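Here is the promised in-class demo. Please do not try to memorize the tokens; focus on the logic of going from shape to residues.
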């Protein structure tokens, strides 16, 4: 089976769902609902998350958006190996998830820090899978030392 990009596979999955509904003789509204359901289900949300992480990885540590999103965590991870960084990030994610659950129960939940930690967890795991332990300190240094551009007044 040839490789197809993740976003293309999502579109094909939604089309297959609509084709299956048409083959069952459903109405146009049911076909549209099947296609919308496939486009916005749990699998699509997971793929969207992975696409976001892939985009950050493509941009690299020198990009301002990557620096703004992960620069503070890079400061905290400096001086650690990749394996220790994965363990620390996992611990941060678990404690942040608990805090988010408590805040959500009280009606004040904010997912931003939880999303950033989830993305960082996946990035670090990808780096370990690709055996990037030697490049990890340099990536952290590049991410940490980049100056933040200020807006012109």
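The designed amino acids, position by position:
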């Amino acid at each position: 089976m040839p490789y197809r990009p993740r976003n293309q596979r999502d579109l094909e999955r939604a089309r297959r769902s609509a084709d299956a509904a048409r083959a069952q003789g459903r109405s146009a509204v049911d076909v549209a609902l099947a296609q919308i359901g496939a486009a916005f289900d749990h699998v699509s949300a997971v793929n969207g998350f992975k696409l976001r992480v892939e985009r950050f990885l493509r941009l690299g540590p020198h990009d301002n958006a990557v620096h703004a999103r992960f620069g503070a965590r890079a400061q905290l991870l400096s001086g650690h190996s990749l394996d220790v960084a994965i363990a620390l990030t996992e611990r941060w994610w678990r404690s942040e998830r608990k805090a988010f659950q408590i805040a959500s129960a009280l009606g004040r939940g904010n997912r931003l820090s939880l999303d950033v930690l989830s993305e960082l967890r996946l990035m670090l795991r990808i780096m370990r899978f690709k055996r990037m332990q030697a490049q990890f300190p340099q990536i952290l240094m590049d991410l940490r030392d980049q100056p933040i551009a200020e807006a012109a007044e």
